[in-house]
Amino acid sequence: MSFTFQNIIIPPLYCSIQTGSDDPRILEWKSNAHSTLSELKVWVAKTDVASLEHEDLASIAAIAVSLNNESDLFYQRIARRGLIGATRTDIMAQLPSPTLEVITCVLSKHVKPCFSKTPHSLLNPSTGRKRSRPAGGPSAILDFYENQEWKAYPGIAALLLWCLNCTEGREYEYIWHLVIPPIMTLLDDYESYYKLDGVKVVCELLNHAPPELLKRTGVDGLLMTSLKTALLHLHSPLTPQIILAAVPAHLQLINLTTASGSKVRFDQLCTLLGEGIIGGIWMYAYQEWETLEASMVAARDVVRNLGVGTTRYLKALVSQLMLNIASLSQQHQLSMQLASLGLLEVIICVCKSRIDNWTGLILGGVARLWVNLEDSDFVNKQDVQRAIQKVTYVLGEACPSVVLNEYDRLLTCDSSMFQGLLVTELVAN
Predict the structure, then answer these.
(1) How far apart are CA 363 and CA 357, in angstroms?
(2) Span 225-271, pLDDT tens digits
(3) pLDDT, tens digit, for every residue of 45-65?
(4) In angstroms, rounded to a whole number, what is the distance separating the alpha carbons of residues 342 and 399?
(5) Secondary structure, 3-state, the chain
(6) What is the reported pTM?
(7) I want to staple 220 with a disulfide (CB 3.0 to 4.6 A). Which of 104, 105, 167, 214 is the partner?
(8) Direct distance between the N- and C-terminal alpha carbons of the chain, in angstroms, rounded to an integer
(9) pLDDT of res. 424
(10) What residues form DSSP beta bridges with 123?
(11) Does residue 85 register a pLDDT over 80?
(12) What is the spatial distance between Cα 199 and Cα 223, in angstroms, rounded to a whole number?
């Protein structure tokens, strides 16, 4: 191939520059890269790309994909804005659908070398299978976090995502040893940004890889442990995003690798809810509102999957939710109330047979929140009020005594205040 990518490739040194987009070295690279990428677009348009070698197609794809990672830390730092725009999309649109050979070439030539100096201690790099014991002994993790040269290559996660998205079913047998080591390296990193990238890549893997391959290679267990650890990666600005990505990934992994209704699935769901969310996030991040809010949203699907088994956690769940909705004092906390009420509604629906012991506490909590909202001038408080009505509606459906007894008592206390608290039917918004 006559085209050269030298001006587009990001020098590893630039990834450590902290001075922003005004650094003269960055400005020079951006100018050269933009010009060269435009030339590549023209070159691809004039070339019979179908006749190109696999290595050439892999190089073009690797450059275009890696330069399109909008969330990459490098581009956030140096203002990627205006670098390629629609150019990357135009280039990719002119390339044929990637074959397994092209994907394998991308992984072996552009991904694997970046991670070669820091192999994951729990993986066999030649097969992608789980090792029976860590390579290098218990202290190998210290070496794993040293000389992380792969962090000097922006866009590596985007490249992995693209390869996973373009691979289906049995094809994973041929690239397993090329994708699993970098995925686990990202997922097990100690920095929030890379851990979040790792979780996103795992989500893509679970959408395409055969479940039996995950189990046969032991990778399902590694992912389970690492995703659980990711939930405890707290006290970071990225923690809410990690939770919102890791919980669905963990849940999907459980459903893919365990039989419906089995004890194994039940135990793993209990571990996710009991140890990961209640005993982990709620225990150690109880003062971090955005983190708690993210966990409330993420927990809904866990509760739905666990079903009536959620009753073993009712005390912890209801107590935490009542604490959340009682803490309304500022406008920005309305989103926390919405998230908490949404989870409470799901809990009532799946635990109808055991929720009667908690009706007093729940109704008292939502009634106090209703009063606080009525007395406030918060913007969009109607959204929270509708969420409260949904909770009281499902509570009345589960426990008719709420309508017959408790609600009448509230109306006796102040009919004008509580008239709209409980509705007999839900009206679409």
Answers:
(1) 12
(2) 999 999 999 999 999 999 999 999 999 999 999 999 999 999 999 99
(3) 888 888 889 998 998 888 888
(4) 18
(5) CCCCCCCCCCCHHHHHCCCCCCCHHHHHHHHHHHHHHHHHHHHHHHCCHHHCCHHHHHHHHHHHHHCCCCCCHHHHHHCCCCCCCCHHHHHHHHCCCCCHHHHHHHHHHHHHHHHCCCCCCCECCCCCCECCCCCCCCCHHHHHCCCCHHHHCCCHHHHHHHHHHCCCHHHHHHHHHHHHHHHHHHHCCCCHHHHHHHHHHHHHHHHHCCHHHHHHCCHHHHHHHHHHHHHCCCCCCCHHHHHHHHHHHHHHHHHHHCCCCCHHHHHHHHHHHHHHHHHHHHHHCCCCHHHHHHHHHHHHHHHHHHHHHHHHHHHHHHHHHHHHHCCCCCHHHHHHHHHHHHHHHHHHHHCCCCHHHHHHHHHHHHHHHHHHHHCCCCCCHHHHHHHHHHHHHHHHHHCCHHHHHHHHHHHHHCHHHHCCCCCCCCCCC
(6) 0.89
(7) 214
(8) 59
(9) 66
(10) 130
(11) no
(12) 10
Q: What is the C-alpha separation between 379 and 305, in angstroms, rounded?
A: 34
